[in-house]
Automatic annotation (TrEMBL):
Keywords: Membrane, Transmembrane, Transmembrane helix. This is NrsF family protein. The chain crosses the membrane at residues 24-44, 59-80, 92-112, 124-145, 157-177, 189-210. It comes from the Bacteria. It comes from Mesorhizobium album.
């Protein structure tokens, strides 16, 4: 069988599932959100001054980055789940979150004295960030890898990596509600490292559990 014929057969199989693949992905996101929220509220929960913090631009900017990451990763992983589907535009949208955080960092460097840069980058809770973003995201990652198996990704490692980014965007959004370090310098450094941990785990999950 030629490669093109095999891809067409996989595509037909993916579309003939009892539940449409698109609906399956929305269900997976719903389940993952419930799992992540349960872990978040049972462990750290939102910061005590959450409502007051929502009136500050630095606090809100964290969610712009994390939500942009989650939305763009969700679009890309759906495309990667369908053999032969074009993922070019979805890949371009993956640049949105990095570009936004770079812009925020540049603005921060302009308004904050240079002597403060190091302190804001390190923050006060970097170790909590590196612990809880992966902890909150590991359950959603398992859900997303399972959803990949429902489809038929032809590039399972890439799809698994994007599943990790999607889980990271979800868990980082919840963690941002707890985090007391609102500087874009902190977010660009520690949130990124924490999300990349999940992306690496997702690559392994895709490699071993999403192959066909």
């Amino acid at each position: 069988m030629r490669t093109e014929d095999l891809i067409k057969a996989l595509d037909a199989d993916a579309r003939s599932k009892a539940m449409p693949l698109g609906r399956a992905w929305w269900l997976a996101v719903g389940v993952a959100a419930v799992v992540a929220a349960a872990v978040f509220f049972m462990t750290i929960g939102p910061r005590p001054d959450f409502m007051a913090a929502t009136h500050t631009m630095r606090f809100l900017s964290k969610f712009v980055f994390t939500v942009a990451l989650g939305v763009s990763a969700f679009a890309l992983i759906q495309a990667l789940s369908i053999p032969g589907a074009s993922s070019r535009h979805a890949k371009l949208w993956m640049l949105a979150a990095p570009v936004l955080v770079v812009i925020a960092v540049v603005l921060e460097l302009f308004v904050v004295p240079e002597a403060e840069w190091g302190r804001r980058l390190v923050g006060t809770n970097w170790y909590i960030c590196l612990t809880f973003i992966p902890l909150i995201g590991i359950g959603p990652l398992a859900v997303f890898v399972a959803a990949l198996r429902y489809g038929a990704p032809t590039r399972p490692v890439l799809a698994g990596t994007v599943a990790g980014l999607l889980a990271g965007g979800l868990s980082a959004t919840l963690y941002a509600a707890h985090c007391f370090d609102d500087s874009p310098l902190f977010v660009a450094t520690w949130y990124t490292i924490a999300v990349l941990i999940l992306a690496g785990l997702g690559a392994l999950g895709g490699r071993f559990f999403a192959r066909w």
